[in-house]
């Protein structure tokens, strides 16, 4: 028989059972593997939850958060996740205070394979064989040079580059910068801007001309001095703009060796080339068959 009970009395606190609707947010942790992209704009998730429990406890809950781990995910996420509840001071509220089913959030996040592909600028040019006479395209680049696309893997595998809306270059004779739109293949989505800037570099065609057996002129000879060269003629190749090189004649070219102020003796001296004038000489590329000569100076 029970004689005594200790303690002899207990205090019981009675509270009202209530249900409260709280907002739910979804956040992400980790990163998708390289080559995959999550369409966060198409995210669907639970935005509000009902929680039930003692009024004193439930009144402290202000919000809930669902955290989705993206690590190693390579396909669309469609699953139910536990939520963490918080009070107004962002302290975690234990789910032990709840009555009934623990709250959760259903999340759907589309995930697609992603690929970076180059923009095919040259393939987008029209009239490349109809530029201004004696001109050529030396470079054509897009900014950005590559764009990101997403879609089914089999579709992405078949795409090596993306074309632009046709760019007409007929009759062009100077470098130009234009804007153009990407032509997106069927079955893919573009992650970057559809408009790109295209730099088309155009210049005159380059040509070369060979001048053979040019006489080497001696400048700066002192009176009563004899000057002889081991090489008296040289060949010269001139390269540059078609409009400049194509009209050059032998009389436009001077090859010289300068002996100014030299005493009798034997010297190795460089050859100097002048093509028409100093400006043309600087612009052009000249290549001599011989770059220096042996000069012998004797007194008469």
UniProtKB/TrEMBL annotation:
Pfam families (alphabetical): YbbR
Record-linked InterPro entries: c-di-AMP_regulator (IPR053154), YbbR (IPR012505)
Signal peptide: none
Name of the protein described by the UniProt record: CdaA regulatory protein CdaR
Organism: bioreactor metagenome
Gene name of the record: cdaR_8
